[in-house]
Write a structure and sequence with these properties.
The chain has about 70 residues and is α+β, with helices and mostly antiparallel strands. The protein has one helix and three strands, in the order E-H-E-E. Strands 1-3-2 form a three-stranded antiparallel β-sheet, covered by helices on one side. Strand 2 and strand 3 form a beta hairpin. The two termini are about 30 Å apart. About 5% of the residues are buried.
């Protein structure tokens, strides 16, 4: 068996620091807008992380995708 190397694209999103930093629905809307702007891509995984800060939680989502159309 041979090993096949491949690369996956990814990007991360967070809300701006300050008021609203811990707003999960706002982060999900930004995620949806960014995915829509990419066009028809094949999303492999989405991760969610929350780190405690002095004020609101610092939220981050990372999206892993291939720039090929998704299966229908």
């Amino acid at each position: 068996m041979t090993r096949r190397d491949w690369t996956i694209n990814h990007f991360s999103l967070s809300n701006p620091a300050g008021d609203g930093q811990g707003d999960v629905p706002a982060l999900l809307r930004r995620l949806a807008d960014n995915l829509e702007a990419l066009g028809d891509v094949n999303v492999q995984d989405i991760t969610f992380a929350s780190d405690v800060s002095d004020g609101e939680d610092d939220l981050t989502m990372t999206i892993y995708y291939h720039p090929e159309p998704r299966r229908r």
